[in-house]
Amino acid sequence: MPHIWLDQKVAVQEFELVPLFWNKLSSLQKELQRYKEKPFGIKRLQLGGRGRKLLIDFDTLPKNIQEALGDPRKVDHPLETFFKFDPDAVRYYSTFKRAGKDYLDPKEQERYIVNASVMKAVILLEDARTQERIRMGGSLRGISDTLLADVISFQNSLKVLHKKEHTLPTSARFKQLLKEFKTGSDSYYCLIKDPDGIKAQNARKVDDSLEMLLNAIFRNQVHKPTPTEVSRNYDAFLSGYAQVYNEDTGELYDPKDFKSLSQSTIISYINKWENKIATHKSRSGDRQQYMGAFKPHHQLDLPEFAGSLLSIDDRQPPFWYDNNRNRAWFYLGIDVASQCFTAVVHGKSKEGIIVDFYRQIVRNYTQWGICLPYELECESSLNSSFKDTLLRPGAMFDNVRIEANNARGKYIERMFGKVRYDVEKANIGWIARPKAKSEANQASSIPTQVIEYDTLINDRLRDLEKWNNMPHPARPEMSRFDYFMSMQHQQLKPTNWEAILPVLGYKTETSCQVGYVSLQGLKRAIAESGQILTGEALITKMKMIEGRELDVYWLDDNDGNVMKAFAYLRGTNRLICEIMEMPRYNRATLERTEKDEAARILQSAYVASVEAFTRQQQNRIENINIIDNTPKTVNSNFKFPTVRRFEVREETPHVFDDKEEDQFEYEPTTNNSWRTQFLQ
Description:
Residues 660-680 are annotated as: Disordered. It is built from 19 helices and 18 strands. It is of the alpha+beta class. The protein has a 6-stranded antiparallel barrel with strand order 12-13-14-18-17-16. A 5-stranded mixed sheet has the order 9-8-7-10-11. The chain has a 4-stranded antiparallel sheet with strand order 1-2-4-3, with no helix packed on it. The protein has 4 domains: 3-69, no CATH class; 78-196 and 205-269, no CATH class; 303-434 and 447-486, Ribonuclease H-like superfamily/Ribonuclease H (Nucleotidyltransferase, domain 5, 2-Layer Sandwich); 505-587 and 594-606, CATH 2.40.50.
């Protein structure tokens, strides 16, 4: 059966083609040689001989042979109909803190987001399957078993279509987990391993090298083995009856370095195929022609509220800025409900323009005090690289629709036409389309004038200003921009800074010293959720970052000031805290305002938190000391002759005779006169 080779190439082996499609191997080899240097015909992926297998490129075979063999890149699975990445899971796991302190690392977030999205799809599939059995009068018994089988077999669909893998249990534990996910008060919490911060008691049984070995046994054999066969192969390897080696390095693996595994464990790390994957109908080579001839377009109503849908695309305004007929590149975003252009960036090329565009979206919407749009529609050429990061549902937008080679699928394309003919056409230097249908839009006899680049950019921005200030089609009493600001949807969600800042933000290497993190020449305070921390919360963060090297990701506003900044431990990609500029107050008491007084109280609380912790730590230390009598010298052989030293000398003690003490009798004075006593 054809299998995926390198770089998403599909390889077919000779025994799959001979004698079914070619009578003998020599005929196949002659045809391969015949088309070797030609741009068409069947091609080799790997030469045969010397222990290597002859591999043929599946995509170069005739269509009838491709359909007969089946393309493993095209899958069809019952869960795929319901599966999509859950935006609420992205929000939950990107902000979840284990034991209230530590954020999940990126790999854990990725794993739990995929698992939660699969569980949501399983719930939808269960509802659909239950309704179908009720409609058909069948029994509901055994539905949970079919769901478990679907979860196991869905693993391969995830790999092929989304380049992901789930880690949900493939045993009876899955049923209990599904029940907890559906009925628990916090569905996403039950998927987290060790949510309270207690270390796992059992070490991981299957490490990366063992997982790689199982996947290699499953993939690299001539025939497609079942998980049961892989389990037998692995047991034979551990028993010494089979040898496992690396074809690239020649390394022979030692069975003593690997652990014994049950069959259920092996199933959880390789994909168990219970349903045969079916192929899809081959597509036309010309995608646009195919969609135009066979794909009906949707008839849709425009949204009423601003922020519901943002449509973006690149554009080259019809003006030249040099004699080589070069045109500037713009990337624009338009709010569909208000028809207002909300973000614009420009340049002489597309290089880096898409990142600047998303930064500008965040700057503008934050400056206007509104939430980011709920949904985005965009083209794939510049945006496909962000689909697993910035454009994952729940990161920057809750829903993202990437249109691949489908100009009719983006609303902004229609607005570009209106801008071209309603606003730009009257400007000097406007370029007409070579084959415009309307005579009014065709080129005139006047030569087209070249516009200096800076002037061209300035004029195009003024055109967009004019467009945004023109009346809204449905509400002529309001401009497009006024409609945009006043008709924001009430259910829009706050910006998910934790998810977008590592992608869009600028990176600065710095450190935390004495409770402050330096950024752009300012010492910024430790904060979280937009508030500067004090008390125990501040001390908890300082224990993690004080004196440590940090990576700070930050984004500036339209005035160049830091708008938002997050600190990560260097080299770990683990989010620790937010950092914010500490508000300052006037040194002179007489000139302080209420704002100054609030800043003074905050700074005092910030400093007092550290001082209180210092006293607490100091009081914990008991009054213990040490006397160290360890000799400092080996001997006293070297001495200066002129140095005087104290020497202990022994003297003979004086011994007193034992005699009786003198006895003195008391004789009282008879004359008590003071004069008498004075004269005596």
